[in-house]
Write a structure and sequence with these properties.
heterodimer, A: about 325 residues, mainly alpha, two-stranded antiparallel ribbon, 14 helices, 2 strands, about 70% helix, globular, B: about 250 residues, alpha/beta, Rossmann fold, 2 domains, 6-stranded mixed β-sheet, 4-stranded antiparallel β-sheet, about 30% helix
């Protein structure tokens, strides 16, 4: 018999140095790895294309990922707690359309448009939470059902395309904010602010601690006196709110209430998983999600600059996700 | 006049889809008493414990705390009455560290409005608490997933001590422990007893039960079979009750 490490339950005969094992076991171990891959991708595209490495292109990437990023920040909180929301894309469309339709009438204020859109989004998310926690429907089924309901209702109530002319509203998606000498796109600032808030919540508050705790052992949390159902409902509501906010930014970017976001929940979820959140909950950090979102954005942008067609881009995107998840699975064996 | 019981049940029953898990069980436990709850698998011990800790609602009957009837609908309700339970699976979060588990549900805040956690204070208090309880762990920052069975148990016990319980329920506490760890646990139970806490301990280990309890209650098929002072009985008699029921 050869000597095996005591933790080697899988038969994978590897023995890694202790500091490396300790690093891989950290809650945010993916962050180091993703950062490395992201830098490698940036270096690769910089060498391959003269257009890649510039402020302008960086902001293009930022603008392209910001909508996914905003929704992904809240989806990260939900998924760390062990939840899942497949109605994100449908909510984005419903919210964006509602905001655009309201903004078509110049009499209406932006605040009113925000209130209605976010109200609808929060209500949809809250309904998801009730169906999952109080009735006990599996989150995948519950939120797919919700996706169909919301998508159907959005398409049914859409009365032609709603072109928005309100400058301030369009600024949300198209504007830039001068910070120092740089003109940073507003959606990028919104995404980074959203992520920062979610980061602070996860890192420093009781709410954040309970998100991790519930993701690991919900029954233990209940028995510790925590209102687990209430937490879950809050997280589904937040996921809906995040998707709704992303939908408004998208409407500002396109200048119209066009349901472009159908299916975007899969981009959001894959970015979150790429960032190191496990579908079974309990692990992951917002920094990982940010890097996951950025990595997908850099790959898409770089491949476009290299004239790789969209079909092959999809193949690469899917492969990257599968490789990341496989590595994560292998990591659990050490 | 005799002191009111710390805990009393009257004709407590629980059915699961027609199966009787607990049938008209009436017990009274005095303040500061250590009571052993024994019985074979399926005797109703876990059902009784779940009802007392708010994890399960009874089908009928009453639970009284210091003479006052209570209705627990959530474990939170039992905790409000200072009943703390150490479950067989310990109910710990593996991805949190020792301090975070000890304070789970009892956090201290730096800012109560935002619920900003006062981690420094909680680490300090956890260290003090573990020292008081003579529990040794590598570090209060160690994740529970890296702890041994005994260290996990110690973490669960520290949580109960932290919560300031008056009634402590221990469900099969020694089942997963080694010899030394069992010794430490029994010492800790005796220390809790010396502090005047009321304790219910479920165990299959007659030696442990006879060492720490004042009284032993035997359940069989959901019914109360015997309720004996520990000093007035012996392991053989208790085992006979467990196996054969009432003579």
């Amino acid at each position: 018999m050869t000597a095996q490490s005591p933790n080697d339950a899988s038969g994978l005969a590897v023995r890694l140095p202790a500091p490396l094992v300790a690093m891989l076991r950290r809650r945010d171990s993916n962050v180091f790895f993703l950062l490395f891959v992201l830098v490698a991708a940036i270096v690769f595209f910089t060498i391959q294309s003269p257009y890649f490495f510039s402020d302008r292109n960086a902001f293009n990437i930022g603008r392209a990922v910001s909508i996914t990023g905003i929704a992904a920040a809240f989806a990260t909180l939900l998924m760390i707690s062990g939840g899942l929301d497949l109605s994100i894309g449908a909510i984005m469309n419903a919210s964006g359309l509602a905001a655009a339709v309201i903004m078509v009438d110049p009499e209406n204020s932006i605040i009113f448009a925000f209130a209605v859109s976010l109200g609808i989004s929060a209500f949809i998310g809250f309904s998801n939470g009730i169906i999952v926690t109080k009735i006990g429907v599996n989150p995948i089924i519950a939120t797919i059902g919700m996706q169909f309901v919301v998508r159907g209702m959005t398409l049914a109530t859409r009365s032609g395309s709603a072109l928005v002319r309100n400058r301030t509203f369009l600024e949300i998606g198209q504007g830039e904010l001068a910070i120092g000498t740089m003109e940073i796109p507003v959606p990028v600032i919104l995404m980074l602010t959203t992520m920062l808030l979610c980061y602070l919540a996860l890192r420093f508050t009781q709410f954040g601690k309970y998100i991790y705790a519930i993701g690991d052992n919900a029954s233990a949390c209940r028995r510790a006196g925590i209102n687990v159902a209430g937490m879950r409902i809050a997280l589904y509501t937040l996921s809906g709110l995040g998707a709704g906010f992303a939908g408004i930014v998208l409407a500002g970017l396109t200048g119209a209430g066009i349901p472009y976001a159908a299916g975007s929940e899969l981009s959001v979820i894959s970015a979150v998983i790429l960032g190191g959140v496990s579908l079974s909950g309990g692990v992951g950090v917002i920094q990982g999600t940010l890097l996951g979102v950025l990595l997908v954005g850099v790959l898409k942008n770089g491949m476009t600059l290299l004239n790789i067609n969209a079909n092959w881009q999809m193949v690469v995107e899917g492969s990257v996700l599968m490789i990341a998840v496989s590595l994560d699975q292998l990591k659990q064996r050490i | 006049m005799e002191a009111r019981p710390a805990l009393e049940t009257k004709d407590l029953s629980r059915y699961f889809k027609g199966v009787v898990a607990l049938n008209d069980v009436s017990v009274a436990i005095s303040p500061g008493e250590v009571v052993g709850l024994v019985g074979d698998n399926g005797a109703g011990k876990s059902t009784l414990v779940k009802i007392l800790s708010g994890d399960l609602e009874p089908s009928s009957g009453q639970v009284l705390i210091e003479g006052e009837e209570v209705h627990f609908r959530h474990p939170r309700d039992a905790k409000k009455r200072q009943i703390e339970t150490i479950y067989q699976d310990l109910a710990l979060c593996e991805n949190l560290d020792i301090m975070e588990n000890v304070f789970l549900g009892h956090e201290s805040y730096r800012n109560p409005l935002l619920r900003l956690l006062d981690r420094r204070r909680m680490y300090r208090e956890t260290s003090q608490l573990l020292e008081e309880l003579a529990i040794r762990v590598p570090s209060t920052r160690e994740l529970v997933m890296n702890l041994s069975g005994g260290q996990r148990q110690a973490t669960a016990l520290a949580r109960v001590a932290k919560a300031g319980a008056r009634l402590i329920i221990l469900d099969e506490p020694t089942a997963a422990l080694g010899v030394n760890e069992t010794r430490n646990l029994l010492d800790l139970v005796l220390r809790f007893k010396a502090q005047g806490k009321t304790i219910i301990i479920i165990s299959h280990e007659m030696r442990d039960v006879f060492e720490v309890t004042d009284r032993i209650i035997v359940l069989k098929r959901g019914e109360l079979i015997a309720d004996k002072l520990t000093a007035a009985t012996d392991p053989d008699e208790i085992v006979r009750y467990i196996i054969r029921g009432r003579d």
